[in-house]
Amino acid sequence: MRLVWWLTTVFGISVISIFLSHHGATDPVQNMTLTVSAPLQGGLRDLAGPINDAFLGLTDRGGIKRDNDRLRDEIETLKNQIAAQEDAALRVRELEDALGYKQSHPEDTLLAADVIAEEPSGLKRAIAINRGLDDGLDEGMIVLSRSGSIVGTVSRVYNDFAWIRLITDPESAINAQVNMTGKSADAGGPEVLTPGTPEPQPSATPAPSVAPAEPQTVRAVAMGDQRSGIVLDLLPSDALIKPGDLVVTSGLGGNFPRGLLLGSILEVDERPQAPFKSATIEPAATLTGLETVLILVSFKPARLTGP
Known about the structure:
Layout: H1 2-22, H2 27-59, H3 61-104, E1 110-118, E2 126-129, E3 142-144, E4 150-157, E5 162-166, E6 173-180, E7 216-225, E8 229-236, E9 246-249, E10 261-269, E11 276-283, E12 292-296, H4 302-305
Antiparallel strand pairs: 1-2, 1-12, 2-5, 3-4, 3-12, 4-5, 6-7, 6-9, 7-8, 8-11, 9-10, 10-11
């Protein structure tokens, strides 16, 4: 019986509430409830916002990681393409230089090679190239820069690579000569007038033309040096050489062809009372950072041709 009364009461209250809500009688109560609960709901939303964002970030982390990986792969691909283009352009320039030397020396047979290593100890000056016995190389062959200046000689050869002794190596010794021009070859020099000396009067007979002084040569030995690079030793004490004079191979001994450019005189070391003097040579070829060299395979050094 109590259950029936309870159900009847609940039903009656529900009907009355519906009737009052339908006619707007409960609006003041609802408005007051919303006014009181609105700040609390806003605070809860603000508090839950970062948590919700973090939850969304965690749930979408796999997608973001995939996008980042894809972008990194695309950037790496573009960098590789740029590096390949730059290397190709450099290679073209190197081959153009080598072709220019070949056109000016049609009688020479040259073999291009890439530098693949440098001597790591620092005790020697040597590089390794990607040519060897299989390409016809032999010890003692001459190695040039792509512009034709001497770089060194083949010191050790293997089937598919070889070591090159640079001209700055302490074991390098080359018979060389200095091509002297201008005042260094002309001991006379211009006439100097002293005060009170009358100036020469022009003559009706034209003075004979003076031919330019013929270049003179001085022979010496270019030796590799750890500190100075290349030292030109055994120069006669009376040799009138000066900075800027060119130094080339003399061809003596038969191990180097004549006229290959070694470099130019950088500084002369005078030695009073000594039968010889020396000079420092600045190599014509840039020996650091070499990438491409030329092997002069058509020239056979005397040490290879035998007696």
